[in-house]
Structure of Citrate lyase acyl carrier protein:
Amino acid sequence: MMEIKQTAMAGTLESSDIQITLTPIAGATEIHLDSSVGKQFGEQIKQVITETLASYKVEHVRVDAVDRGALDCTIQARTQTVIQRGLDQVDQVNWEVL
């Protein structure tokens, strides 16, 4: 399991993007989603975030995601970036989990 050391953010609030904030917490992982397309794609967005967290073995975090219609590949990339920032490993990207 990888431990998130600090709160981190990735992404923007521009159209077709997603802004993700990752905060370490003591309890189980929580995902809070604010999305302009949440009714249609909310579960898919959460699934992409959950799978990306699992690939890095990240647990015990609060994920705040503000989606503006991002594609799955963008959601995954933003989640990977915020994980790397939260782990304080931005210079040592673990490409093998991709």
Notes: Helices lie at 38-55, 72-86. The radius of gyration is 12 Å.
